[in-house]
Amino acid sequence: MTILFSSILVLLMLLGAPIFVVVAGLALFLLFFGQIDSSAMIIEMHRMATTPVLVAIPLFTFAGYLLSESGAPKRLIRASDAILGRVPGGLAIIALITCAIFTALTGATGLTIIALGGILFPALVKGKYPEKFSLGLLTTSGTLGLLFPPSLPLIIYAIVAKVRIDQLFLAGLLPGIMLVVLLSGFSVQKAVFAKVPRTRFRVTELLKALRGTIWEIPLPFIVLGGIYSGYFAISEAAAITVAYVLLVEVVIYRDIKLRELPRIMRTSMVLVGGLLVILGAALGLTNYLIDEQVPMKMLNFFQAHIASPFLFLVVLNFFLLAVGCTMGIFSALTVVVPLVTPIALAYGINPIHLGIIFLTNLEIGASIPPLGVNLFISSIRFEKPVLRLYLASLPFIAILLLGLAVITYLPWLSLVLVK
Amino acid sequence: MIQHWERLDSIIDRVEQTLISILLSVMILIAFLQIVLRNLFATGLTWGDPLVRNLVLWVGFIGAAIATREGKHISIDVVSQLVPPRGKIFIEVIIQIFSFIVCGLLTFAAVKFVRNEALMGSITFLGIRAWVPELILPAAFGLMTLRFGFRCLKNFLWP
Amino acid sequence: GRPQEVTVIKIATLAPDGSSWMKTLNAINAEVMEKTKGKVAFKIYSGGVLGDEKDMMRKMQIGQIQGAGLSSGGLATIFKEIDVMHIPFFFQNYEEVDYLLKKMGPYFKKGLEDNGYIMLGWSEAGFTYLMSTVYVSSVNDLKKAKVWIWQESSMAKAIFHEAGVAAIPLSLPDVLVGLQTGMVDVVYSPPTVAIALQWFTKVKYLVDVPLSYIGVGVVVRKDVFKKLPPTSQAIILESFQRNLDQLKTLTRRENHEAIKVMQNNGVKIVNPSKDQIAEFKGLSEKAIARFTNQTFSPKALADATAILEAYRKGKK
Ligand code: NA
Ligand code: NA
Questions:
Q1: Which of A137, A236, B117, B158 is the most exposed place for a label (fewest CB within 10 A)?
Q2: Which of the four pLDDT bands, split at 50, 70 and 90, describes residue A151?
Q3: Ligand 2 mean position, distance from CA A275 (Å)
Q4: Is B14's pLDDT higher than 70?
Q5: Model confidence pLDDT, tens digit, residues A67-109
Q6: Which of A47, A52, A232 sits opposite C171 (nearest CB)?
Q7: What is the mean pLDDT of residues C33-39?
Q8: Domain coordinates of chain B in residue numbers?
Q9: Half-sphere exposure of A39 toward its Cβ, with a 13 Å CA cutoff?
């Protein structure tokens, strides 16, 4: 009965039913047969929505949408072009870095492809980069920022797995930089091979570009400096970010008119609302699973069949890639983290390291054919057939998988900064 | 009936838009004010943080209701791109019926939740009864139920 | 004959796996299963996996779980008179707590039962103490300091308000950051909690006057408990009371040792003068006058005060 119902739900999910409805439907079904009152669902949703750290999510999301609607992306690209244009593959590296920063700030990978793709794709093609390479680059680098603070998935992982956010923020830095460096190396090699012309380095242009974005330069330092120095709690950093972005984009640069704010508030809160109901539904399902002591039963099963942590991590990686590809990052985080965390801890994996493994897998999974969500967003944004994007993203995925192996089996990379 | 509903729904939507603008602005204002008070004046509003948490609840669930109106809930939506238009409508109707049922059950659960909270009688910030801000839960789920229901009806009547 | 009926009672607690609390609950479970010949068993959800105290109470109410380990603050939301235990600077030592609970315990139990819950046993988190990064020994020092306040505790709010202290609200996970950055310089908790949350690494002083008492009790839904055979009921009550009494003794020792650990880490113990303590108490009494009727009744306050006064006289 449960299996039949679950199969129907999976089918509905693949057909495009809202994920929160699918998860809530499953939870309500299980609660009914477990003879637990359905309001247990709402207790969990309410509990999740009023978690103190959660305040950071609407604030950072709104700030991210403000940035994406302002001239900030253009100014950011201009400044990095002035710095890196001379380097072979410079434009591709710029694309990687801006996408990473942008995803970190906005938290939504789809948003990065949509907001930056429109500027970067024509620029790359005009700069004589092969089209297939450019498409693959923009499709996969949309997720690169997930490991950099203050990305939403990092915050959500910390909330769901109950680890310290500041530690997770530190842990993501080196692995994130490594992935950017790996892809940059690939880009340089590609650029040299395709004989991509370079731009000249001019100090005047550099100064002009930097002066143009002078007010946005302090932003990463305010956010990250505040959090890393321990001076701000995460919710405070979020409030300061919003206040600063409003000041810069509305008052100083005037990219965004005051009357546009209600619309931007609305679009950003639609994303927050969508996230919140998924989180809540997933927590409702988790509540049932904990009540039935499912994590404990899974742990016993795993320990009976898999002896070494090494093998466990292999299995975990394949599982998470599949989950990231099919369910999407947010739903996967909320549904899978509570189930897998106790098992991984029993294998002696550090919870912070586990978080980085999780996020890296999910970020790669989001670009993996056939169902990775980034492929479809790119397909819509660049008006290219999905199949073409499958092929374009393959080399990038291969490199990211290499990075994943390093991150998984070299805990040092994630943990060295956490002390 | 559908026309009546659509007129009503557009009024509800204007209320949602207004609420979301005001509540999010207040959230930003209070959150920022707390930082200023803490760091520059070594004090703080004891009701500030609970208020902000309740604002998150409101803004989030109003956002979810708007997402239902605009069809913007996070979903996978892969297979439906591959089916012909006629099959697509059929799939949409099934999904809407299913969503209607689940949201209806969630509304019912939320009503029970708020009733229990009223019975427990606990108090949140500024002496406000905890169940009062929690009313947004049944309200938002109720609205989502209606929106899924009427969208389905519309698809069914004018495919 | 008929298949034997097993009643499984689900109990949630914030206490993490491996803590003295969980060890005690597991011991009780084993004991009860053995003595009732498997008729009653407990399923224990540790570490707050089912949520904080409010969530646990919500889940008891809808019947997902049947029992919970709750702090006296949580219990006071079921039966308000229990709040009388939380009056700041009310007790001077643990003997006074024990004496008061001996006298008023039955009243609290009856109150909980009238509201649908059976109290199985009582232990404690212990006394909270003021801890600070700046020297604090008087009300005046407190006024100059940045005092943290826990939003959930209305009693603390009232007393800081009375003192004219501008308290800074922070959620529990943010307190450590607050201490580090100087956002707050006075906090309060039982010593064991200050160790567990790492606060002890940031504070420099501990004021050696018990601030307020935090008890912890295990309750179960009355309807579930009353359905059990009377012999099982008696076995459960006896087991809980005995084991939780032992746990209380152990907790007191742990709190005592925690203060020593803090001292070894360089935390200085501050002993305020008699006058300074009297000033703290005066504050508390003024705040209480305004506070009664909102939580506990004037009668409960009068009873508790009389009991303590009688005890103190008897000791002299
Ligand atoms: Na998703
Ligand atoms: Na996603």
A1: B158
A2: confident
A3: 9
A4: yes
A5: 888 888 888 878 888 888 788 888 899 889 888 888 887 666 6
A6: A52
A7: 94
A8: 2-157
A9: 20
Q: Which long-range contacts (CB under 8 A, 24 or more apart) does B22-27 make?
A: B23/B55, B23/B58, B23/B59, B23/B62, B24/A58, B24/A62, B24/A265, B24/A269, B24/B55, B24/B59, B25/A265, B26/B55, B27/A55, B27/A58, B27/A59, B27/B52, B27/B55, B27/B56, B27/B59
Which DSSP category does B55 fall into?
Answer: H
Q: What is the pLDDT of residues B39-66, one digit of tens each?
A: 788 777 878 888 999 999 999 999 999 9
Pull the structure tokens for residue A42: 């709402």
Q: Would you call A195 helix, strand, or coil by DSSP?
A: coil
Contact A217, A223 (CB under 8 A): no
- Whether residue A310 contacts residue A343, with contact meaning beta carbons closer than 8 Å, is answered with no
For chain B, say whether C61 makes contact (Cβ under 8 Å). yes
d(C-alpha B37, C-alpha B35), whole Å? 5
Record the tokens describing residue A77, joined without a space.
């690209």
Q: Do A239 and B34 touch (CB under 8 A)?
A: yes
- How many whole angstroms separate alpha carbon B68 and alpha carbon B72? 6
Give the environment of ion ligand 1: residues with CB less than 5 A.
A 328, 330-331; B 74
As a whole number, mean pLDDT of residues A216-227 equals 77
One-letter amino acid of A79:
A
Chain B nearest-CA residue for C146? B42
CB A107 within 8 A of CB A151: yes
Phi-psi label, residue C97: left if phi above 0, alpha if psi -120 to 50, beta otherwise: alpha
Q: What sign does the CA torsion over A215, A217, A220, A226 have?
A: negative
Q: For tokens 């403000």, what's the residue? A: A66
B38 and C183: CB-CB below 8 Å? yes
Quick one: average pLDDT of C13-34?
92
**What Å distances lie between residue B23 and A58, A246, B60, CA to CA?**
11, 16, 10
Question: How large is the average pLDDT for residues C77-84?
Answer: 91
Per-residue pLDDT of A46-77, as tens digits, reads 988 888 778 888 998 898 888 888 888 888 87
Strands (E), chain C: 7-12, 40-45, 67-71, 117-132, 148-149, 168-169, 186-189, 205-207, 212-221, 268-270
Minimum mean pLDDT range among A19-28, A162-171, A212-221, C154-163: C154-163
> What's residue C1's pLDDT?
44
Q: Tokens representing C266? A: 């360089």
Task: Give mean pLDDT, residues A250-265.
Answer: 94
| Contact B122/A at CB under 8 A | no
Under 8 Å between Cβ of C66 and C224: yes
Token pair 């949309």: residue: A142
**Nearest residue in chain A measured CA to CA from C51:** A47
- Tell whether C146 lies on the interface with B, counting CB pairs under 8 A: yes
Tokens in use for C84? 């009388």
Among residues B74, C147, C174, the alpha carbon closest in space to that of A331 is found at: B74
Average pLDDT on A324-348 reads 83
In this complex, is the C-beta atom of B38 within 8 Å of any C-beta atom belonging to chain C? yes
Q: Which of residues 22-81 of B touch A (CB under 8 A)?
A: 24-25, 27-28, 31-32, 34-35, 49, 52-54, 56-57, 59-67, 70, 72-81
Minimum CA–CA partner of A38 in chain C: C62
Mention every residue, 6+ apart, whose C-beta is less than 8 A from residue A290: A338, C45, C49, C50
User: Would you call C313 exposed, middle or buried from its count of C-beta atoms within 10 A (0-12, 13-18, 19+)?
Assistant: exposed
Residue of B nearest to A17 (CA): B95
Find residue C127's DSSP bridge partners.
Answer: C213
- pTM equals 0.85
Q: Is some CB atom of chain C closer than 8 A to the CB atom of B43?
A: yes
Contact A312, A135 (CB under 8 A): no
Using CA atoms, how far residue C305 sits from A77, C83, C211, C282, C283, in Å, is: 72, 13, 16, 14, 16
